[in-house]
């Protein structure tokens, strides 16, 4: 049993536990137990109060607004909007994960249920599925459950109002009262067919990160051999950047073609998806290659950890994450900006609607391109400034 006395065995066991801990935190710590909180949602209250036969007013819209806004169990931040058009503009600009629209005839329609010509008012629940599928599902479920509870309360109020006028309720009135409010659900910016339930942007970005990393490693090794063979370092760095950017364009095009042809992914605009993936792949390649050129293969643990810490977050709404994760990882990881921008391109209208995410990626491209080119001059100076060696004979 001499193996039990070997330090290497215990060192290996400790290393395994450290690796499992690090990657466990990376893959599970940020997402396990995540809960939605403070999801921005638009609320449009158009309801006009109706006059009761017994006097007074019946203002259902205001009652619904107060109940929704004051309910601490709702994981929403309500933004009161004065028109459905403005709410839809906010959805198009991915400012809201969803919206509820209370119609102008809600109060009068509910009172009409006691008449011979009942009108069932429709309350709209609009979910912005392209922004985040998980958040969209939470909105539909939470709003739908809230409207069921409110409908039950309204039924009691309506029965009380009708009871003041008559002791007997006609069959058609009782039938109408079973569903006093009709909830109409609508989805805007839906992902296309075979889009991994709206998670396609995150998947494509992960593929591009890995492809760019392989490209960066291969070109880094090739550049070292070229320098060893006598090529000028600055010229090798420049050629390394040119070849890497061209490869990123080819790789992004192949990825788009593979996703649509092999797996049937529906793309609203394949060309613009390819162009943005090219931008993302270029940013990834330049970042990775700059670190490799400056600090060598010691950069690999940083790049691998960055990938594993970022991957679980790409398809999650930031409102689902803890404050620590949002500040220390989500707020700065380049993969998040790439996935967010690609989501805008794929689900919100193409390159014309890409906002700050594209500017961040362009900043990464320009900044790390300068660093990559500068690495050639730094290496050249290091070689020039090295102290000369003298050979002396005996």
UniProtKB/TrEMBL annotation:
**What are the recorded GO MF terms, alphabetically?**
ABC-type transporter activity
Pfam families in the record, alphabetically? ABC2_membrane_3 (PF12698)
List the GO cellular component terms. Answer: membrane
Give yes or no: UniProt keyword Transmembrane: yes
> What topology in the membrane does the UniProt record assign?
Multi-pass membrane protein
InterPro entries the UniProt entry points to = ABC2_TM, T7SS_ABC-Transporter
Compartments in which it is found? Membrane
Query: Which of UniProt's keywords are assigned here?
Result: Membrane, Transmembrane, Transmembrane helix
Q: Specify the domain of life of the species encoding this protein.
A: Bacteria
Domain ABC-2 type transporter transmembrane per the UniProt entry, residue ranges: 11-373
Locate the transmembrane regions by residue number.
Answer: 203-222, 234-263, 275-295, 302-321, 353-374
Q: What is this protein called?
A: Phage infection protein
Source species: Paenibacillus apis
